[in-house]
Amino acid sequence: MSEEAKSLLKRLKKEKKTAKQIDLIQELKNHNQEEMVNHVLLVHLERKDHDSLRLEILNALNYNFQIIVQPLSHILNDPNETLPIKEKAITLLGHNRGKKALKVLLKVFKKSKDSKIKDNIAQALTYFDDKSAIKIMIKSLDKDEYRLHVLTGLARNDFTVYGSKELIKALASLKVNERFEKLHHEKIIEGIFDKFKLATIEELQNAIKENKLDKAIEAHRKEQVDIDVILKKVEM
Fold it and tell me: What does the alpha-carbon distance between residue 126 and residue 158 come to, in Å, rounded to a whole number?
């Protein structure tokens, strides 16, 4: 661990004032590539006396570390946790993109009766190239209360769209009227046109029906796997 990170952690341990603790946590974000920093932040996350402090901790965590998954799972399964804390936990699990994170999100989505939680999870699932996640995304596109979040997520995470024939098919047949939904949907469709060299919805629907996209989709999936491998090596 770097000397600067050690110094900040020592100061955080001794500091009693919440405002100064928050300042130190914000500084520690610059060192969140170090696993020990994340371990210490997770210990402080267990404090439930100050949501502002805990939100700063969640902002400072490195979502690439698998050690964050279990504590975030506990947050989502705690009925006493506040919505802002749960929303941030969901976002981190989405960015994590690991199998354990996906398992947590799918489990909470299926059992939760809170539409706001399910709405946030529906968006977080757009980070995953997984059949179970894609199935929920497609179902969520048909629901007014979830559609905007899914479209927002897919507009940002086009790698998920281009790797799923089922998702492309659902998006090609989707009819939206609400302004922001329409903006995101148009952006996604335009991206699909560019990716697969098509010009109209009719061309896209015919290409899906005639299985003309299959090879290009498979090539995209392979390319994405290669990119993920490179990124993991860089992060290590």
Answer: 9
- CA dist., res. 36 & res. 11, Å (int): 15
pLDDT of res. 236 = 44
Contacts for 94 with CB less than 8 Å, ≥ 6 apart: 101, 105, 123, 124, 125, 126, 127, 128, 153
User: pLDDT for 75-99, tens place per residue?
Assistant: 999 999 999 999 999 999 999 999 9
Question: What residues does CATH 1.25.10 cover in the chain?
Answer: 65-128
The per-residue pLDDT for range 9-65, each reduced to its tens digit, is 999 999 999 999 999 999 999 999 999 999 999 999 998 888 999 999 999 999 999
Burial class (CB in 10 A: 0-12, 13-18, 19+), 210: exposed
Is the pTM above the cut of 0.85?
yes
Name the phi and psi angles at 79, rounded to 5: -65, -15
Fold of 65-128: Leucine-rich Repeat Variant (1.25.10)
| DSSP per-residue string spanning 80-128 | TS-HHHHHHHHHHHHHH--HHHHHHHHHHHHH---HHHHHHHHHHGGG-
Q: Give mean pLDDT, residues 209-220.
A: 93
Decide if 141 contacts 199 (C-beta within 8 A): no
In whole angstroms, how far apart are CA 209 and each of 129, 160, 191?
22, 20, 19
